[in-house]
Every structure is written in structure tokens, then in C-alpha cells.
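Try this one yourself first.
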């Protein structure tokens, strides 16, 4: 119990420090026009202030994008239907390193597999930590989405998590330990470098919102747990197929944070505004079944991966 209490105290101190940095950064951005920055245009909010959707979410402009390119593909284009590659952590300006999928390096967090018919499977791969978001994971997810943006052989993307959970959100302890090396600054740096010429989001936002900006449908496969940043990543997809017992939560309120990894845009498009406020302010954990009932989840099935593949193939055949 003592160890748990000490870890909780450490995480709370980190959350408070991160929140103060976020509030300060948001305050600095408030003097810019909405075309200058993707940051919320409002006054800085004191630490641990309850998040209100209509105060913060409405300040973020809806980002339109060219969705769903033509279903026809060039006959000269070929897709490797059997290869699996893993993207490595890298700065935005450095070319990615391709390594075998069997590598055990801790710096490699996302597996990408080309399936049949232009279907690509992107798998978060940090199962020993329930796919929580440390800095290499942030970089790898954003890099994967960025690379798929201009791949014309891709028709549908399936996004899932390896192991017992989809993603349990921010690995606060890991990011706190890297704070001295500029981790927080990297998370908030705007633009992150992954959003292309028009990109305005920071790294924390891009890991979720870049999926929404892909020109092809994205299907999130949820199981086990989907908390905090993981939930916001799932909200960036077009469809969310979940197991009935999957645990879902917009958990940032428990850390005194606001869900500004893009949930302030994506959440309010799926559920009623009062439901969005309740989920965000309380950090309540709900099941996949309740998520389906309120519109957070597209469909609950026993095997969401099989359902995702079925729907993906149906889309490709259209």
C-alpha cells in the first residue's frame, strides 16, 4: 500500500506540473488567431479546474479534410500482402528505420502489416505496459499515421492494441522521468512535424487526430481497456468495434487534465453535449455495451477484429 501511495503521489505531482505547463502554453496561445495555431483560444485555467466542453471544445475549429480517395487503384501499384514492418522512434525530420517485426527493442512501439485488398493493420505494441503512451509510443503512432497519409495503395486502416488492452493512456511515470530531456516540450511543440505542410497540432494531439485526417476509413478495435489518451486515439477513427466488457474512460479528469488530444472535437460529434460533459468531468469507466448505447462505440461484438476485417473488406468491394 505504501508503494502504491508513493506512486500515486508522484503521478499527481507530475500531472499538476504538466497541467500548469499546458495552462501556461494555452494562455500564451490565446493571443493568436485561430488560423495561427490549433491551440484552444481561451484564458489559462487554474490547475485541476473541472473541464467544461462548451468552454474548451467549442474553441477548437473543426478541421476539414479530404476524406476517402477514389476506390480505384493504379494497376501498376502493388501491395505487399504478407510483409510486416515496425516503425521506430524518430524525430520528425529524420527518416524512419525499418526493422524486422520480431525485434525486441523497447524503442519500437507500432507494428504495421499490409493485409489483402489494400487493408492495413496498425497495432500498438507495448503489451507489457498495456500499450500505455510513453515518448517512443507517441512518436511511433504519429509517424505511422503520417506515413499512411500519402500511401495510395491503402484502402482501409484497422487500428488495434496488442495484448490485454487497446491502450491505457499516458504512461505518466515514464514521461515524468523523461521530463528533464525535454519530453514535455516535445509533446507540446507545435507543429509536431507529422501533420505535413498544413499540420498545426502538437505531438499529443497528432497521435489521435491524424487518424481522422487519413483519406481512407479507419476502424479501431477495442478490447480490455481503453483509457484517457487511448480513448482519444480511438475517437479519431471512423468506426469503433468493441468487446462488450471493454472498459472505456475519458480519464484525464482524474489527473486534473483536460482531454485536449482532440477529444474536445471528436467526442462532441458522437454523443450529446451533456453526456460528453459527464464523461469528461467524472472520468467514469463504462463498458463497451454502455458505450454502444450512448454512441461512443459503433458496435459491440465478441470478436471485434473479425468484425473489423469483415467491414473493411465490404468497404473495399464497394
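Now uncover the answer:
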Amino acid at each position: 500500500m505504501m508503494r502504491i501511495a508513493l506512486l500515486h503521489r508522484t503521478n499527481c505531482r507530475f500531472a499538476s506540473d504538466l497541467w500548469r505547463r499546458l495552462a501556461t502554453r494555452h494562455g500564451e496561445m490565446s493571443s493568436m488567431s485561430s488560423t495561427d495555431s490549433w491551440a484552444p483560444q481561451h484564458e489559462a485555467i487554474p490547475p485541476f479546474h473541472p473541464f467544461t466542453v462548451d468552454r474548451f471544445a467549442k474553441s477548437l475549429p473543426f478541421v476539414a479534410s479530404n476524406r476517402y480517395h477514389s476506390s480505384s487503384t493504379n494497376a501498376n501499384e502493388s501491395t505487399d500482402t504478407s510483409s510486416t514492418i515496425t516503425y521506430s522512434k524518430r524525430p520528425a525530420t529524420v527518416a524512419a528505420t525499418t526493422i524486422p517485426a520480431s525485434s525486441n527493442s523497447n524503442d519500437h512501439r507500432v507494428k504495421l502489416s499490409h493485409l489483402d485488398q489494400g487493408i492495413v493493420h496498425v497495432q500498438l505494441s507495448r503489451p507489457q505496459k498495456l500499450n500505455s503512451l510513453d515518448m517512443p509510443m507517441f512518436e511511433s503512432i504519429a509517424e505511422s499515421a503520417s506515413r499512411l497519409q500519402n500511401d495510395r495503395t491503402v484502402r482501409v486502416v484497422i487500428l488495434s492494441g496488442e495484448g490485454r488492452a487497446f491502450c491505457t493512456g499516458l504512461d505518466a511515470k515514464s514521461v515524468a522521468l523523461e521530463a528533464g530531456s525535454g519530453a514535455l516540450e516535445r509533446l507540446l511543440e507545435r507543429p509536431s512535424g507529422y501533420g505535413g505542410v498544413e499540420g498545426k497540432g502538437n505531438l499529443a494531439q497528432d497521435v489521435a487526430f491524424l487518424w481522422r485526417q487519413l483519406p481512407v476509413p479507419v476502424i479501431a478495435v477495442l478490447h480490455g481497456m481503453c483509457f484517457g489518451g487511448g480513448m482519444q486515439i480511438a475517437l479519431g477513427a471512423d468506426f469503433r468495434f468493441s468487446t462488450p466488457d471493454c472498459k472505456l474512460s475519458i480519464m484525464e479528469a482524474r489527473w486534473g487534465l483536460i482531454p485536449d488530444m482532440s477529444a474536445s472535437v471528436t467526442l462532441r460529434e458522437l454523443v450529446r453535449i451533456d453526456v460528453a460533459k459527464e464523461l469528461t468531468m467524472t472520468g467514469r469507466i463504462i463498458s463497451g455495451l454502455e458505450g454502444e448505447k450512448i454512441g461512443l462505440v459503433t458496435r459491440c461484438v465478441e470478436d471485434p477484429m473479425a468484425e473489423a476485417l469483415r467491414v473493411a473488406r465490404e468497404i473495399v468491394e464497394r
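Discussion: The CA atoms of residues 108 and 279 lie 32 Å apart. The mean pLDDT is 75.
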